Amino acid sequence: MSRIGYKAITVPAGVTVTVDGENITVKGPKGEMTRHFAPEISMTQDGNEIKFDRPDDSFKALHGTTRANLNNMIVGVTDGFKKNMKLVGVGYRAQKQGNKLILNVGYSHPVEMTPPEGIDFDVPSNTEITVSGISKQVVGQWAAEIRAVRSPEPYKGKGIRYVDEYVRRKEGKTGK
């Protein structure tokens, strides 16, 4: 069983955590995030450490989830989150125009994607994309949406994939 809910969170210097009822606001050098948390999990702040406690064992999953979500908020406003992706395929390329991402991935038209506020696209080369922001959930969601434009196929391995992703290949047809 995981005991992640009992681990204390150390708040780094330059980050402020404010509790307003069930809403918690975290401010840091990269920005500010506010999130609603369940009232069943109690939070105590002692100096630069935050601890969570649950009333009984029926809230085990919520206990760990609450702690992990607040920790991700603190990491997001200090360091931020990144997802690196690459395009594999002949003629597949990406480019950034303003804050839009334009993908040419084998369709008859280029695919344009406009990110929400707080998400940045970076294109270091025409086959690499970096999605960055302060919210781990939103960064992961946008990376998944980019990947869904042309997900990797198992025969040739062409498509948009995460840098650390392994695409399992299939053999294809066999001749007689």
Automatic annotation (TrEMBL):
UniProt keyword Iron present: no
Alphabetical keyword list: Ribonucleoprotein, Ribosomal protein, RNA-binding, rRNA-binding
GO cellular component terms attached to this protein's record: ribosome
Annotated transmembrane regions: none
Large ribosomal subunit protein uL6 alpha-beta domain span: 11-80, 88-162
Stored InterPro entries: Ribosomal_uL6-like (IPR000702), Ribosomal_uL6-like_a/b-dom_sf (IPR036789), Ribosomal_uL6_a/b-dom (IPR020040), Ribosomal_uL6_bac-type (IPR019906), Ribosomal_uL6_CS (IPR002358)
Keyword Hydrolase on entry: no
Subunit structure comment from the entry: Part of the 50S ribosomal subunit.
NCBIfam families per UniProt: L6_bact (TIGR03654)
Function description: This protein binds to the 23S rRNA, and is important in its secondary structure. It is located near the subunit interface in the base of the L7/L12 stalk, and near the tRNA binding site of the peptidyltransferase center.
Family the UniProt entry places it in: Belongs to the universal ribosomal protein uL6 family.
Protein name: Large ribosomal subunit protein uL6
Organism for this UniProt entry: Lacticaseibacillus hegangensis
Species classification: Bacteria, Bacillati, Bacillota, Bacilli, Lactobacillales
